[in-house]
Amino acid sequence: MARAIGKQITELARLYTEEQKYNRTNGSFDHKLKLFENKYKRIKLPEEVFIKAFPVMLKGLAEDHFNNNKLSKLLFNKACANFFEGPNYHWQNLDK
């Protein structure tokens, strides 16, 4: 089972281009999350492993934020909310 999940996550990673990944400066997190949703539905990734696959859509500052704040220990929805309400949210407001 774990091997099948790993294979699905690898398949998900292959569906991404670098431009589609979220890095805090290249578009809205909401838009990048919709891309992630479309891709995980395409490969039929089970909901219970979304948090394991989540880093596939991140790069740069966003990936650092995910790792430094140990977001992998949260539920998927809580980890996503952290990008809206956490430091990224404040960075976006400062950028404006």
Short summary:
The chain has 96 residues and is an all-alpha fold. The protein has six helices and no strands.
In angstroms, what is the radius of gyration? 13 Å
List the uncertain runs. Answer: 88-96
What would you call the structural class? mainly alpha
- Report the order of strands and helices: HHHHHH
* Helical content class: 55-70%
Query: What portion of residues belong to β-strands?
Result: under 5%
End-to-end distance, in Å? 45 Å
Number of strands: 0
* Shape annotation: globular
Tally of distinct domains: 1
Mean pLDDT: 87
- Count every helix, treating DSSP H or I runs of 4 or more residues as helices: 6
Largest β-sheet summary = none
What does this structure look like?
By secondary structure, the chain is an all-alpha fold. It has one domain (2-95). Helix content is 61%, strand content 0%. It is built from 6 helices and no strands. It has helices spanning 2-14, 29-42, 50-53, 60-68, 76-85, 87-95. The longest helix has 14 residues, at 29-42. It is globular, with a radius of gyration of 13 Å. 17% of the residues are buried.
